[in-house]
Design goal:
The protein has 15 helices and seven strands. By secondary structure, it is of the alpha/beta class. The chain folds into three domains: about 110 residues, P-loop containing nucleotide triphosphate hydrolases (Rossmann fold), CATH 3.40.50.300; about 60 residues, Helicase, Ruva Protein, domain 3, CATH 1.10.8.60; about 110 residues, Zinc Finger, Delta Prime, domain 3.
Length: about 325
């Protein structure tokens, strides 16, 4: 068996779990049984874990320690020391993280051993293909438009999509699913974030945007900064549309998965480039006034919302 004793999977949770399952199958192949222990990094005691890794099991010849949430480790340096010391034969350690900073002691230690496997989330059309693959593995045939619905419902998280796919398989009698069926059966489990507010802003929906501000109770300064980024994306997409760029290529140009790019394309089509530039000018000006203390952030945010949802050309006054 060529499996390394220690390995760090870092990136998309679904892809990491798939790689983890394959590694565990290899670790336990050819044995009567194996022992798996799951530890969460924020609860791990580095000292006790180090003792466990250096001891031998009385019940199995191979052990697999899975340590999840490495990015939340409280004593990362001590944990790195515990897992990179010499460990007993037949003991394997798999570390799981969504992201780690370059100065992370665990990342540095695993890189030194050549034991880092990077599994980033798919981008652009890769996300749609990955989603279609998950559905196909479960015998489900879904149109691309319905895949977009499912990605929206799951916040573009493949691990959540896989869970929904298991449920959808139970309801699909012939393997085919319509968009209406996906809308009806897929539970909206994307985390509540500020992004729906940005969508309502881009759609020119005054009622929805105001409702988003009220329901989220987010810091208006951060919401204003996010609105500037959103309008910048819409302006970039509008420029690409005006240059007759094929819609399927726009996601790649602006660094967005296709399902999200399609959503923003629909918003950008509601505005001309001159209007988006004027809105950006207004937004940046309001942001500067907030930072100078001349206007409360909440008032500035409301001014931008009213301008973006008004059919009239925005101005600063």
């Amino acid at each position: 068996m060529d499996e390394p004793q220690i390995i760090l999977f870092i990136g998309d949770p679904y892809r990491c779990d798939r790689a983890l399952a394959k590694r565990e199958e290899e670790i336990f192949s050819g044995t009567a049984g194996g022992e798996r222990r799951t530890v969460y990094a924020d609860e791990a005691d580095p000292s006790s874990l180090g003792v466990d890794l250096r001891s031998s099991s009385l019940f199995s010849s191979r052990r697999h320690f899975v340590i999840r949430g490495i990015e939340r480790a409280q004593a990362e340096a001590a944990l790195a020391a515990a897992i990179t010391r010499e460990i007993s034969d037949g003991t394997f350690v798999s570390l799981i993280a969504t992201e780690l900073k370059g100065k992370s002691p665990i990342l540095k230690a695993c890189r030194k051993r050549g034991a880092v496997v990077s599994l980033p989330a798919p981008r652009g059309r890769g996300m749609t293909r990955a989603a279609a693959g998950i559905l196909a593995e479960r015998g489900l045939e879904v149109e691309e438009e319905s895949i977009d619905v499912l990605l929206n419902r799951t916040g573009g998280r493949l691990i959540a999509l896989a869970r929904e796919a298991e449920k959808l398989r139970s309801f699909a009698r012939t393997g085919g699913l319509t968009g209406e069926a996906v809308e009806r059966l897929a539970f909206p489990n994307a985390e509540q974030t500020v992004y729906p507010f940005y969508d309502r802003l881009g759609e020119g929906d005054l009622t929805g945007a105001i409702a988003g501000i009220r329901e989220l109770d987010e810091d208006p300064t951060l919401m204003l900064s996010g609105a500037i980024r959103h309008l910048t994306r819409l302006a970039m997409i509008r420029l690409l549309l005006d240059r007759k760029t094929p819609a399927k290529k726009i996601g790649g140009f602006v660094g967005l998965p296709d399902w999200l790019a399609r959503r923003l394309i629909a918003q950008a089509k509601l505005h001309g480039i001159d209007r988006l530039i004027s809105l950006l000018d207004l937004a940046v000006g309001l942001d500067l006034e907030v930072k100078a203390g001349r206007i409360p952030a909440f008032d500035a945010l409301l001014k931008l919302v009213f301008a973006a949802t008004s059919p009239q050309r925005p101005g600063r006054g």
